[in-house]
Amino acid sequence: MRIAPCFRSQVCVFVLLIIAQQAFAQAAQPSAGKRTAAQNLDAAAALVQKGQFSEAATLARKAVALAPNSAVAHNLLGLIEEQLKHTTTAEAEYERAIRLDPKFAAARANLGNLLLAEGKVAQAQTLLQKAVTLDPANARAHYNLALLLIKMNDYAHAADQFEAVQKLRGDDPTIALMFVGAALKAGQTERALKAANLAVTTHAQDAKVLFNLALLLAQNAQYEKAAELFSEVNRLQPGTAEVLYNLGVAEHNLKDLDAAAGALAEAADLKPDLTEAHFRLGLIASERLDHENAILEFQHSIDHAPDRAQYYYLLGREQFALGRWEQAAAGYGKAAELDPKQPLYALSLGNAFFRAENYAAAEKAFETTAQLDPKTEDIQYLIGYCDRVQGKMDEARANLKQQLQSDPKHVKALDSLGFILLEQNDPGGAQAQLEKAAALAPDDVDVLFDLARTYSRGKQTDKAIETFQRVLRLSPENSQAHYQLFLLYNRSQHSEEAKKEMAEFQRLQEMDKMVRREETALSRMRKAEAERGATQNSNAGDAR
């Protein structure tokens, strides 16, 4: 919550001056000197109302000189000196007033306010608490005590003080908002909502008050009530982009995607450069798995705010979801360029390059991620895997071992290390790593496949056949497992089994070719449709 300034108004000064005049007027038959003091205070009051504080100070000093034991006079002089920024003098005058009259609540409140402004929190708290005890009707003391308590993160007691001010000052909307905010920060949700409902009743036709109250509720995750108030503000002042945007955000947080999209779209229509509206619409489209529309909305956001790294990241994420690795890398790369210290962007860029089989670029991005956040999950494994695919086996081993030092049960690292050891003609070492991996993940097809290859390389034919059969129970259409079984059966002179495995391998290979041909044709068709759509949009733009 933003802390408001201490409230020091000329009205408060004027009220104190009236009290001063009454105090003198009620004294028993005043002497000439005391009448002069009263007259000086009266004149000082008039000058304060005109903002002539220097002249008022001269008269107030005369009053103090004539009535040195008057707590009211010293308090008044303190107020004027404070207005003149003579804080040391003001503090001394307040203290003198308190010494003369220890039950003088106004003087304690004024000194407390001054010390609060100077950052002397503990002293201010003591004075203000004493002031509200002596004079429960001192709204200013309650208010500044509330501000002090907020500064100390004591929101519950701050709410108590704001509630006291609200009772004294009636329907002041600023106090109502601060009361609600303090109660929310204190976790007193029921109390806050009750106060909010009272404010709504009191200010039912004031769109500004309702809007600010709705914002406060939304900032504190009270989205249902916030959405209700934003809707009411929209009824009072229809067609306001800011109101509709905040209504959409509240509905989005309530997971009412249809209502949120409607409000946000209307806001974007009213104010096309409202970047955050397009951003939210992109998030909603993404949640609906409508990746194409999400891309359009995030692109709109980028058009209006090309320096926002987050928008490029989200654009890349949608392209990644559609399997467009190069476009995803472009989005992630721009995000990483704009915010080079964000490990998520570097990691995502590495993943996109990895999927595009650009392992050198992926490794570079993963290494950047490791530099930014060495604790990134799987990062040394990913670097090691990229090394492995590029044939840099020694570097791969080093990175995989580093991963296993931090996580000895990392199945993929164990699998890759086993694969490398097998490639480096160390079947015993490979078998040890792969059997650890298989014990941790007995249904992991990749681990079992590599373990079966290791058994085969070590001439453990029965174990190899049994393990490849386990692979096929988990993944019946694994053509390479069928082929490896063909080799093993052929080597062990089981000709009938070998023929069956070769026939199944050939069938699956032919099916794979057909699938690839269909995917290629489908990709070409989508590309042509996208090009036609781009041409139509361009023509429509020319027409407009």
In short:
This protein has 544 residues and is an all-alpha fold. It is built from 29 helices and no strands.
Structure description:
- The protein is mainly alpha-helical.
- Among the domains are: 1-152, Alpha Horseshoe (Serine Threonine Protein Phosphatase 5, Tetratricopeptide repeat), CATH 1.25.40.10; 204-306, Tetratricopeptide repeat domain (Serine Threonine Protein Phosphatase 5, Tetratricopeptide repeat), CATH 1.25.40.
- The chain contains 29 helices and no strands.
- The chain has helices spanning 10-25, 32-49, 53-66, 71-83, 87-100, 105-117, 121-134, 139-151, 155-169, 173-185, 189-202, 207-219, 223-236, 241-253, 257-270, 275-287, 291-304, 309-321, 325-338, 343-355, 359-372, 379-389, 393-406, 411-423, 427-440, 445-457, 461-474, 479-491, 495-543.
- α4 runs parallel beside α6 (105-117), α15 (257-270) packs antiparallel against α16 and α22 packs antiparallel against α23 (393-406).
- The longest helix has 49 residues, at 495-543.
